[in-house]
Amino acid sequence: MDNFNLFIEKQFKVSIVFLFIGLFFGILYSINLLGFFIDSTTLNPVNIRAIHISLMLYGFIPLMLSYLPFLLINKEVGNSKEGLFYLNLYTIFWYIFLIFMINTLLFGNTRGLAFYDFSYELNFILAFAGLFYIIALYKFIKLYKVKPTWVKVSLYIVIAAPFTLLILMNPTIGQVESTISGPHGDNTLGMSFALIPIYYLIIKLLSKNDFKARWNIFWIIPFVFYILSVLYRSFIGHLTYNQEWFFQYLTLFYIPLLYRWYKDANIEKYSKLALLISIVAFLFVDIEGNILFIPELRWVFHRNDLVVAHAHVAMGIGVFFMVISMFVSYIKQLQKINFYTLYLSGLIGIFTVLTLSGLAQASMLNTSTYTLWEFRTFFGIITFLSIIAFIQIRTKYSLLEKYNIFGVLSDGLGGIFLILLSSYLYPLFSFSFQGKYEYVVFAFVSMTGVIHYLAFKYKVHENILTKLTVFIRVFVSSIFFSLYLAKSLHIVALLISLFDISMVVFYLVYIYKKEQLCKK
């Protein structure tokens, strides 16, 4: 049980880093809209937007939602150590996918799509991760003597998911390119319905009593009509606008359904707060979406900032707080009101200014969209600052810890800084920049920073990992110095060599000396 709890807490905090990376790129994109941009190859506005949206859709939120069956099984019958091993592998490969996705988009490998803009080939990493997920779920399910219906359904869906992913995302036979102008009314009904079983499982997870779903007719009717719409599209032809409108309005059945489920559940304070926020956002988006489907409004606001505001509430509040409600009992930072206050202040602010901007773009409001975009950037920063709730800062550090912190900042963040801005900074200092091998060097610089972080994080390995960074710096410094003398590289090579050897000298004189004296 302790291993499972520690695993959940660790992966939540690791994966939320990708959420804030996504928010960071969203702020950069917003600044670009204001006309402030840097002539950097990697920080191209198209790349920034693709990274922001892709991380929102494929980062923290879906990864954490995928833990839902395991959380519920753990509550009902416990957990499997062997299953936890495969769940960890699944998570690691998801992180590998996210790193590949960020870097490919950063270097301009986009598909020109509104949402799923990364290269199709990366879906194979996700599909491979899905195989470990299937094994993990199977190991957990074996703990049941009698398997509940939801467990059987989950396993069937999970087994089909990797293959479905590769088909739907395929650029030739998939649905991504063919639905970039959507969504249609029945597609909206289908996407909305996909969240209903998730709400059911979350309420079942959080409820202290034995939760029994009531008023099921309100999800059965929309589900039946959604299946009929899929069959109609597949075998007869396109739906008329009025038919789409009919399917769109069936989503209103979810309002009484979620009200009934929420009232019947017995949930603890902060979990109930997060779930309430999620349900209110979901129902708001549902009602607003039905209003925007009115023909006179749909074409006025189609693809303007009001629709973007709608998406921020749907994903940034509705689905996001579904996830938060699942993990409140595991993450103590989610049991404090400051996170909710900061995050919601930012998201509601973004929604408000984007809504006003959408009205202005539709000539229904006489105001400057530029000023509204300035506020959009401000509220994005407020949302980003909610990360403060997850940061714990100590005030006292040993000399070795300070050395490693400096290594993280100089090499870890410095390498990332150079990947993002080197194509802009090098010409400013009259340095030559080819934009090829340099990025590989910057990546290795960042990895040295990662070793410093591991040395700082894991006290038991602190000395050996720090020494490893010293060996790396001596070797790298000598190579760059040699390339400078051979005139193969210019002054930048000398600067790198001097910086690395300076770090080595500091370690040997001030830290290694004390280690030896302590041993004696």
Automatic annotation (TrEMBL):
The keyword Transmembrane applies. InterPro entries: Cyt_c_oxase-like_su1_sf (IPR036927). The keyword Transmembrane applies. The chain crosses the membrane at residues 12-38, 50-72, 84-102, 122-141, 153-169, 189-206, 218-239, 245-262, 274-294, 306-328, 340-360, 372-391, 403-425, 437-456, 468-485, 491-512. It comes from the Bacteria. Keywords: Membrane, Transmembrane, Transmembrane helix. This is Membrane protein. It comes from Malaciobacter molluscorum LMG 25693. The lineage of its organism: Bacteria, Pseudomonadati, Campylobacterota, Epsilonproteobacteria, Campylobacterales.
